[in-house]
Specification:
alpha+beta; Peptide Deformylase; five-stranded antiparallel beta sheet; three-stranded mixed beta sheet; iron; Peptide_deformylase; protein biosynthesis; Peptide deformylase; metal ion binding
């Protein structure tokens, strides 16, 4: 089932999410719905707060991203087929020299900005079967994970922008929160409490 994606301005997007237990109700259905919602919106990642649930859960499938012709062959190969579920994730280390990459977000449609992040991460998480995992990732895969991880920490990519950039996009963000934007996927807007 395709769920509405929560738009910028909803308090759930600024709330630090809580861990879930392995008896979380209908988890497999929720995961299937999150993947379906993400694919419907042409995203490569979706966190539970983006569908209104303040829980530490996000899903990623970077395969569509691998078709970007501006990427190197190595980057495309790393992204192709990378599909994961992250439950109760904790980034335990970020390392390397920060680098900029143009990011967007399904909760903030039509806003894209360069965001600086470290290229290497080590993350601990539970997979969809609640099996503990500890892995290291780098490059664009790490970046997608960091972006989604920020969501469960109550952080948006716009929070990482300079004061000047924030001022420049303030009007656009206000319009998104009021539903004054055209999107081709279902959204829930905080100021109007309506679905499209």
């Amino acid at each position: 089932m395709i769920l509405p994606i929560v738009a910028y301005g909803d308090p759930v997007l600024k709330k630090k999410a809580t861990d879930i237990a392995n008896d979380y109700p209908n988890l497999q259905d929720l995961l299937a719905n999150m993947f379906e919602t993400m694919y419907n919106a042409y995203g490569v990642g979706l966190a539970a707060p983006q569908i209104g649930l303040p829980i530490r859960l996000f899903v990623i499938d970077t395969t569509p991203f691998s078709e970007d012709e501006d990427l190197t062959e190595a980057e495309q190969n790393a992204l192709n087929g990378f599909k994961r579920v992250f439950i109760n994730a904790k980034i335990v280390e970020e390392s390397g020299d920060e680098w900029a990459f143009n990011e967007g977000c399904l909760s903030i449609p039509d806003v894209r900005e360069d965001v600086f992040r470290k290229p290497n991460i080590i993350i601990e998480y539970l997979d969809e079967n609640f099996q503990p995992q500890k892995e290291s990732f780098d490059g664009l895969v790490a970046r997608v994970i960091q972006h989604e991880y920020d969501h469960i920490e109550g952080v948006l990519f716009t929070d990482k922008l300079s004061s000047l950039k924030k001022k420049l996009i303030k009007g656009r963000l206000t319009n998104i929160s009021k539903g004054k934007i055209n999107v081709d996927y279902r959204m829930r807007f905080p100021d109007q409490k309506k679905k499209r």
